[in-house]
Amino acid sequence: MHRLFTGFFLIGIAGAILQLLLGDTGAPARVVGALWEAADLAVQVSLGLIGVLALWSGLFRLAEQSRLADRLAALVQPVLHRLMPSVPEGSQAGAGISMNMAANMLGLDNAATPLGLKAMSSLQESNPRPRTASDAQIMFLVLNTSAVTLVPVTVLLYRTQQGAADPADIYLPMLMATTASTFVGVALTARLQGIRLRDPILLAVAGGWLALLGLLGLAVWWVPPDASTRLSSLLGNGLLLAVIGAFFVAAWRARVDSYDAFIEGAKEGFNLAVRLIPYLVAMLAAIAMLRASGVLEAVLSAIRHAALWLGWDTRFVDALPVALLKPLSGSGARAAMLDVMHTQGVDSLAGRMAAVMQGSTETTFYVLAVYFGSVGVRNFRYALWCGLAADAAGLITAILVSYLFFG
User: Fold this and answer.
1) Among 21-25, 42-46, 162-166, which stretch is predicted with the lowest mean pLDDT?
2) Residue 324 CB partners (closer than 8 Å, separation 6+)
3) How far is it, in rounded angstroms, from Cα 87 to Cα 67?
């Protein structure tokens, strides 16, 4: 990460110097001014998130204390057992993996990472070569980098904070993109590991999910463009209301004091919003350097000309900074998404496409470093390439479905 961060700044400075040598005497002032503007934008974004982030952190605390995530974990256990056959059914590792996946599906990021690290540690105990990733560890990592998220709260929060007319209208495209990422990642990893995917339970789950998305896609295809956006909005907002209702019902049935639990979680949300400021300042400033110095525009211009030469619609190029940064840095991709929303408009095609990209995959290099680094694994084998293949599938699908819904 430090190489990426340093490189952005040094490349930005080099771009400013090049522009100065070419006769643009305003380049240094423009780059410095972009730095101050990016720092102010990072603080505005973080402070603007406090209320909504506190709200969702409080709601998610109800899910944690009512053990709703645990019950969801029990539902996904049969599927995970078939994807990781070397993990004994009912083992501590299996339970940790199930709970991690359930937390990811609910968007419980704060709970998902600790559960994931614990699950990886349990998998390491049965790893015959401790410094080399096992098959189960690789599959677990790919599932984490590409897992379907049913409640993409983080992206919705940023769209709300940036003033989107309907933050949830990107929900269905995002669901399609993250599904493509998961299916490609799992299929490639299973093929390399010799796992049989023609299992009745796996086929039933995959077939049912694809049938649902297919029906929704057909509905979008046949209805007018405005109606397709309303359909995605209805689905997204309806699911959010259903999830909130499930949180409160689960808390009531578990006899959890919902008010105290909510307040406790909301306090953490407030602290999290404040802790985001340094990370956003760092990456927004780095991206501002690239943009103001002309380097980012030069790269995007080359891609745009290549797309024109191929006869493609070039509007997707404005959202590409998110796609380029997503596998490398979560904070970098988030900052790029905010930059696209700020410069192109939150409800523009590029702004919506950037949001769909952000929610389509996880940050492969970060997950790889944290999960494998926590147990001392140094030989990743093919884990990186499977994760990157899943990223590519999700990002390409994000572009295509964004055109379908919003183009």
Assistant:
1) 42-46
2) 336
3) 23
